């Protein structure tokens, strides 16, 4: 039988199996490129039925942890090559030391990607872009409200730029995006800084000026980068567990 202290916080037989396998892969007890133990052996080791184990293996294969091929042993993947952003929350639970780099990556991805498609949206559909700011004057001065507004705003711009794949990318990061934004917007100074940025961006949309939009994006990145440097040094302990 397995060491029960090895489990994260399993709440069901399926969760028990999933967390045991994921932890074993992460800690190199089941190294990438090797085969998992046979189903019967692994089910007995974990203490779950083979039916439950098969369901878990299929789910982990969809997430990129494993490769299942009929008639052959289940193979362990290198998740950095095969998995998508949906496993980020799991990685954070497995190793909190990854938090700063993951948050920095999410912020960079959101900002750099937007610096490309938002000016394009203003160029192609400026009138449509103006409508995205309809609720700006009534935006509640809270971290929660700003986080929701920010995500919605940046996602809407992807469609005006005719970049729907970028919307899918943002969808995959929605939970993480909201948590990261909530940390930033918890500071009233950051909310005021961003509010001024929103107004500059709105002005660019009204004036149909893609270059002005690009400049607003660049200035916002520069003014917030120092703040992010400080925030990454004091990340909440419960980050990744928040909903």
UniProtKB/TrEMBL annotation:
<feature type="domain" description="HTH gntR-type">
    <location>
        <begin position="11"/>
        <end position="79"/>
    </location>
</feature>
<protein>
    <recommendedName>
        <fullName>Fatty acid metabolism regulator protein</fullName>
    </recommendedName>
</protein>
<dbReference type="Pfam" id="PF07840">
    <property type="entry name" value="FadR_C"/>
</dbReference>
<dbReference type="InterPro" id="IPR028374">
    <property type="entry name" value="FadR_C"/>
</dbReference>
<dbReference type="InterPro" id="IPR008920">
    <property type="entry name" value="TF_FadR/GntR_C"/>
</dbReference>
<dbReference type="GO" id="GO:0003677">
    <property type="term" value="F:DNA binding"/>
</dbReference>
<dbReference type="GO" id="GO:0003700">
    <property type="term" value="F:DNA-binding transcription factor activity"/>
</dbReference>
<keyword id="KW-0010">Activator</keyword>
<dbReference type="GO" id="GO:0000062">
    <property type="term" value="F:fatty-acyl-CoA binding"/>
</dbReference>
<dbReference type="InterPro" id="IPR036390">
    <property type="entry name" value="WH_DNA-bd_sf"/>
</dbReference>
<keyword id="KW-0804">Transcription</keyword>
<keyword id="KW-0805">Transcription regulation</keyword>
<dbReference type="GO" id="GO:0006631">
    <property type="term" value="P:fatty acid metabolic process"/>
</dbReference>
<keyword id="KW-0443">Lipid metabolism</keyword>
<dbReference type="InterPro" id="IPR000524">
    <property type="entry name" value="Tscrpt_reg_HTH_GntR"/>
</dbReference>
<keyword id="KW-0678">Repressor</keyword>
<dbReference type="InterPro" id="IPR036388">
    <property type="entry name" value="WH-like_DNA-bd_sf"/>
</dbReference>
<keyword id="KW-0238">DNA-binding</keyword>
<dbReference type="InterPro" id="IPR014178">
    <property type="entry name" value="FA-response_TF_FadR"/>
</dbReference>
<dbReference type="GO" id="GO:0005737">
    <property type="term" value="C:cytoplasm"/>
</dbReference>
<comment type="function">
    <text>Multifunctional regulator of fatty acid metabolism.</text>
</comment>
<dbReference type="GO" id="GO:0019217">
    <property type="term" value="P:regulation of fatty acid metabolic process"/>
</dbReference>
<keyword id="KW-0276">Fatty acid metabolism</keyword>
<dbReference type="Pfam" id="PF00392">
    <property type="entry name" value="GntR"/>
</dbReference>
<comment type="subunit">
    <text>Homodimer.</text>
</comment>
<keyword id="KW-0963">Cytoplasm</keyword>
């Amino acid at each position: 039988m397995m060491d029960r202290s090895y489990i994260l916080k399993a709440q069901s037989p399926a969760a028990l199996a999933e967390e045991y396998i994921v932890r074993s892969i992460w800690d190199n007890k089941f190294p990438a490129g090797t085969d998992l133990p046979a189903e019967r052996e692994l089910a007995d080791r974990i203490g779950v039925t083979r039916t439950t184990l098969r369901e878990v293996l299929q789910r982990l294969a969809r997430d990129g942890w494993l490769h299942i091929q009929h008639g052959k042993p289940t193979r362990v993947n290198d998740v950095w090559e095969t998995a998508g952003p949906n496993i980020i929350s799991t990685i954070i639970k497995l190793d909190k030391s990854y938090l700063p780099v993951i948050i920095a990556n999410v912020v960079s991805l959101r900002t750099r990607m937007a610096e490309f498609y938002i000016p394009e949206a203003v160029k192609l559909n400026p009138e449509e872009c103006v409508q995205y700011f309809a609720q700006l004057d009534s935006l509640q001065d809270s971290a929660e409200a700003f986080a929701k507004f920010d995500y919605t705003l940046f996602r809407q711009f992807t469609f005006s730029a005719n970049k729907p794949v970028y919307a899918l990318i943002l969808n995959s990061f929605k939970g993480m995006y909201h948590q990261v934004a909530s940390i930033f917007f918890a500071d009233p100074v950051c909310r005021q800084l961003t509010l001024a940025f929103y107004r500059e961006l709105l002005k660019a949309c009204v004036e149909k000026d893609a270059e002005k939009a690009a400049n607003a994006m660049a200035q916002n990145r520069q003014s917030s980068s120092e703040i992010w440097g400080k925030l990454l040094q004091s990340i909440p302990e419960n980050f990744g567990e928040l909903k």
